[in-house]
UniProtKB/TrEMBL annotation:
InterPro entries: ARM-like (IPR011989), ARM-type_fold (IPR016024), PUM-HD (IPR033133), Pumilio_RNA-bd_rpt (IPR001313). GO terms for biological process: regulation of translation. Keywords: Repeat, RNA-binding, Translation regulation. GO terms for molecular function: mRNA binding. One of its GO terms (cellular component) is cytoplasm. This is PUM-HD domain-containing protein.
Length: 448
């Protein structure tokens, strides 16, 4: 009995005749037929295919090759090109089909004469921008001056385009320092346009890159940048993209008087902004006459800032400087409003900051005002308040630690008096969602 024919690479299976217009060229069909054979035989015929450790992965790669061949056959039949995938799991030595593209054709390399006059257009298209960078990397630098000249005429177009911004980044790595300075001067020539680029989600990245390329010792470059942002510091500080530009600038140059003066003039406005409060804290770190004026403005508006969702961070930062006289002035500015702040979502953080990092001399007057001995109703209200209970816990921790660390008798007396008053309100605290937190702190004697 004849054995059933099995496919192998030593013999070809008989194939029934089929109409020629349904099949591609014989060479392509032969490739497709060979790839359609069994996995084990394919492995011996195509030794260059990768050999995964498990069979499932191997058959997956084989199926990928079959699908790839089907695409190539379809492309040849329809006069199209199937681009090779960037991250293929397997590679093959099969013949690549090359079919001329009829539309969207980007040559692998163009001469600078062909590019001339179209740099702005090409820089904002991914394929062409990569081609120009490749020409520079290959050493074709004769067109560099032409490229610089043209992009200086349309920096906003390039910097606020995703492809153009990427091209700009790579170009800066190629240019010498004088060319970078020339581009900087062209960029800041129009201050309004420069600000618009700094505030743009894409443009800000290019400006930051440009600033990082400047010479920190060059007074000329520093003057150019400082003049460009003068009058725009508030707009930059109150915008997250602008904040990153200022941050990149401070990595190269120290913040100077004119900028600090502008910050001081708009201190409250900047402090109450999400990114502005960070800028203000950076400005306080700089020792200068303007720093003292900024701190005075913060102290003068301490109550308003303490109740602000972002301004409270600035007040906390000033207290965290641990300067006795500055902290004393802040406390004096808030005197009479501490109970109000204790019950405020943002102000309570400022009161806690006094307990956590203020000097020991300030603890007793704060406790006397917030936990008034003659106002038991207010005391209970604070213990049961969503934010007030955290202030009470901070007061307990600080008075206890004052005694343990420094042997301060007054600290122990204040702590014991607070514990007695809390125990007296046990009936109102043990089952209260916020009050039981304070109660558990003294019951378990845990100070987290």
């Amino acid at each position: 009995m004849d054995r059933q024919w099995r496919p192998s690479f030593s013999s070809n299976p008989p194939s029934p005749p089929s109409p020629s217009h349904h099949l591609p060229s014989p060479s392509l069909q032969d490739q497709f037929s060979r790839l359609s054979l069994s996995g084990s035989d394919s492995a011996s015929q195509f030794p260059n295919l990768p050999r995964p450790n498990n069979n499932d992965s191997y058959h997956h790669d084989l199926e990928y090759q079959l699908n790839r061949m089907r695409q190539l056959i379809f492309a040849a039949a329809n006069q199209e090109v199937v681009p090779a995938p960037r991250n293929s799991r397997a590679t093959t030595t099969a013949t690549t089909i090359t079919v001329p593209r009829t539309r969207g054709f980007v040559p692998s390399m163009m001469s600078w004469e062909e590019i001339k006059g179209n740099v702005l257009k090409y820089a904002t298209e991914k394929e062409y921008s990569l081609m120009m960078i490749n020409k520079f990397e290959l050493g074709h630098m004769e067109g560099l001056k032409m490229v610089i000249s043209e992009i200086k005429e349309g920096l906003s177009l390039i910097l606020m385009n995703s492809c153009g911004n990427e091209f700009f980044h790579k170009l800066l790595d190629i240019l010498d320092h004088q060319d970078i300075v020339d581009i900087l001067k062209a960029l800041v020539a129009n201050q309004h346009e420069f600000l618009r680029i700094c505030l743009d989600n894409i443009g800000t990245r290019g400006v930051q890159k440009l600033l990082s390329c400047l010479d920190s010792d060059s007074l000329e470059e520093k003057a150019v940048v400082m003049n460009a942002i003068r009058g725009s510091v508030v707009a930059l500080a109150k915008n997250m993209n602008g904040f990153h530009v200022l941050k990149a600038l401070t990595k190269v140059y120290e913040i100077t008087g004119p900028i600090l003066s502008e910050v001081a003039d708009h201190c409250v406005e900047i402090a109450m902004d999400r990114s502005g409060c960070c800028v203000l804290q950076n400005c306080i770190q700089v020792l200068s006459p303007e720093r003292d004026r900024i701190i005075r403005e913060i102290i003068h508006h301490a109550l308003e800032l303490s109740e602000s969702d972002y301004g409270n961070y600035v007040v906390q930062y000033v207290i965290g400087l641990k300067d006795f006289h500055i902290t004393q002035e802040v406390l004096m500015a808030l005197h009479g409003y501490l109970i109000r702040l204790t019950k405020n979502k943002f102000g309570s953080h400022v009161v806690e900051k006094f307990f956590k990092e203020g000097h020991d001399e300030f603890v007793e007057p704060i406790i006397s005002e917030v936990f008034n001995e003659n106002d038991d109703a207010n005391f209970l209200e604070i213990l049961q308040h969503p934010t007030g209970n955290f202030v009470a816990q901070s007061a307990l921790r600080r008075t206890k630690m004052m005694h343990l660390n420094h042997g301060v008798c007054m600290g122990l007396c204040m702590y014991q008096r607070l514990v007695e008053r809390i125990d007296a309100n046990y009936a109102f605290l043990h089952s209260h969602i916020h009050g039981k937190r304070v109660l558990s702190l003294i019951r378990n004697n845990r100070f987290r």
